[in-house]
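User: Structure please.
Assistant: Input sequence and predicted structure:
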Amino acid sequence: MQTPHRKLRPRNQTPNLLAVRRKHWPTLSSYGFKNALCLVFIQSADKERALEETKCYTTQSLASVAYLINTLANNVLQMLDIQASQLRRMESSVNHISQVSERENL
């Protein structure tokens, strides 16, 4: 059972997961990483530690996905800001052309 003061430390667990990947590389290529983690968990003598390492890896993966989504969202917002600025400049140019053509028609 996990105690309340115990915190996940993904950075400390990463070398263990890398060792798992290297040790079970044929398993990884044959069944995929998810299935390999399940296999490691089943074969592990220390189920709690294997579960904690799996939780840490999952936490790292989710954090990575969240970071990538945030980066993508920021890039989309920047692109939209640039496009809005370009549209304002185009609108200004069209208004200027319209005013010049109205003066010539008078």
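The two ends are 87 Å apart (CA to CA).
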